[in-house]
UniProtKB/TrEMBL annotation:
Keywords noted in UniProt: ATP-binding, Nucleotide-binding, Transport
Organism superkingdom: Bacteria
Protein name, UniProt field: Branched-chain amino acid transport system ATP-binding protein
Gene3D superfamilies attached to this UniProt entry: P-loop containing nucleotide triphosphate hydrolases
Native species: Actinomadura hallensis
GO MF term set: ATP binding; ATP hydrolysis activity
GO cellular component, one term: plasma membrane
Keyword ATP-binding recorded: yes
Alphabetized SMART domains for the sequence: AAA (SM00382)
């Protein structure tokens, strides 16, 4: 991301204008364990929002609740102002929600291209029946820098690039919000740099991105807002600069030596 950015187009101004996703008072329990405790947070169009916290803080549980894989004990999820708490993951996907998984969920014996192409079915079932899937797949492969390995089996490529394949597959559904669960894990430094540039570009085009990531320098560089979970509770929300200074956040990360970087 460059320091001096070009003037915003009218489109990007309106796209960046507001809250797209909101959670209100989300609580999730597993038996007697409260994994997420009364968490309210927002994610904006055209912005990258970070969701961080030590291991077991509740980040993936929040993702699973937002995407509909888990039902909260209490609380609501809103997309574009609509209460979607009762909707299935498939219906949320049709409304523009896409995600990647911490443990890769790719078809290992299929090529990169076919892994991306399969997601086009969601688009087709979403009223875009005449979409040319081959053309759209090629466009997404190009956009995500995967064209050079498009014909290789996923089992045959490095994990860092397989993570990008997951993002490409999510983009194939033409999402409005993209939730990424530790997408940089396993990437080389060079891969993470290219990845960061791609995410910044996607946000500039209007996409809302939520980033769960243990690579804190990456989070601090990309995100306009960062939410911090600790033992299931939201302990801080703010700009990266505010988060780095927060005594609660520093205390939560003591021993990990990560947050000050
Ligand atoms: N399916 C489950 N059944 C029981 N407990 C669970 C389940 N999933 C998560 N938990 C517990 O909920 C808490 C939050 O876990 P979660 O995976 O959401 O944390 P996280 O912040 O994503 O952690 P990490 O950074 O290690 O991925 C933990 O105490 C975890 O053990």
């Amino acid at each position: 991301m460059s320091e001096t950015s070009a003037p915003e187009s009218p489109e990007s101004r309106t796209q960046a204008a507001g809250t797209l996703l909101e959670t209100r008072g989300i609580t999730v329990r597993f038996g007697g364990n409260t994994a997420v405790d009364d968490v309210s947070l927002t994610m904006d169009e055209g912005r990258i929002t970070g969701l961080i916290g030590p291991n077991g803080a509740g980040k993936t549980t929040m993702f699973n609740t937002i995407t509909g894989l888990l039902k909260p004990a209490s609380g609501r999820v809103f997309l574009d102002g609509d209460d979607i708490t009762g909707l299935s993951p498939a219906k949320r996907a049709r409304r523009g929600m896409a995600r990647t998984f911490q443990r890769l969920e790719l078809f290992l014996s299929l090529t990169v291209r076919d892994n991306v192409r399969v997601a086009g079915d969601i688009l087709r079932s979403n009223g875009r029946r005449r979409l040319d899937l081959d053309e759209e797949t090629d466009r997404i492969l190009e956009r995500t820098g995967l064209t050079d390995i498009a014909d290789r089996d996923v089992s045959d490529i490095p994990i860092g690039r397989a993570r990008v394949v997951e993002v490409a597959r999510a983009l194939m559904t033409s999402p409005r919000i993209l939730l990424l669960d530790e997408p940089a894990s396993g990437q080389t430094e060079g891969e993470t740099e290219a990845f960061a540039e791609m995410l910044a570009g996607l946000a500039e085009e209007g996409l809302a991105i939520c980033l769960v990531e243990h690579d804190l320098p990456l989070v601090m560089k990309l995100c306009s807002t960062v939410h911090v979970l600790d033992y299931g509770s939201l302990i801080a929300s703010g700009t990266p600069a505010q988060i780095k200074e927060s005594p609660e956040v520093i205390a939560a990360y003591i021993g990990t030596e990560e947050v000050g970087q």
